[in-house]
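S1.2 Input.
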Amino acid sequence: MVLGAGYSFAQEAEQEPDLPPLAPAPKEQIQEKPETNPETSDAPKGGKDLTVRSEQDRAAMLADLFASLKAETDEEEAALIAEEVWAVFLQSGSASVDFLLHRGIAAQNRGDNKLARRMYDHVLRLQPGYAEGWSRSGRLAADEKDLNRAVADTMQALILEPRHFYALWTLGNILETLERPDDAFEVYEQANKVYPQHKQIKERVERLKESAKGKAL
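S1.3 Output.
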C-alpha cells in the first residue's frame, strides 16, 4: 500500500480541501425500510441466492463474483455483478449490525451525518472485523474533512477486504485532495484491476496517466 503505518495527515488536513465527487457505488442508495429483512432486502432480484450463511459462504461467493467482475468486458453486465458484490458486502452476519449499517447509510444519504456517525460507530464497536462498516465510516469522515480518520478507517477496510473497490476509490479521492497524484494513480489502478469496467475509476486512471505524461514533457 502507498501509505506507511505511521503516516499522519494532520498538516495537510489543516488546508480544509474539498474532496473530488464520489461516483455512486452500484445500488448504494439504501432507504430505511423497517418492514424488510435487512439481511436480504438489498439482494438483487434475479433468482440467485446471495444469502451469506457462514464466513465460508462469504469467501466462496466473493471469490466467484470478483473473478467474474474482473473478467467481464461489458459495462452493464459488470454493473450487475457489482450489485451482487454489494449484496454480499451488506451482510455482516448479524441482523442487528445490518440494521445499524442501513440506518447509517440512509442517514448519510439524506445529509444527517451526525446520526450516520453514531450508527457507524455502533457497527464498528459491535463488529470490528466488518470491512463494509470501516469503508462507510471512512467515507463519512472524508466527506467531513476528518482526513486522519478517513485514511485510518478506509485502510482498515482494505486490510479486511483488499478488493473493496469503493474503499479504494475513497482512498484515491483523498490522495488526490492532498495533491499526491502518483499515489492516487496507484490506488485507482488497484481498483481498476478489481473492477475494470467501472467508468469513473477508468476515467481517473486515464486522467492521471495523461497528467503524468504532460508533466514529463
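S1.4 Remarks. Residues 4-19, 23-46 have pLDDT under 50 and may be disordered.
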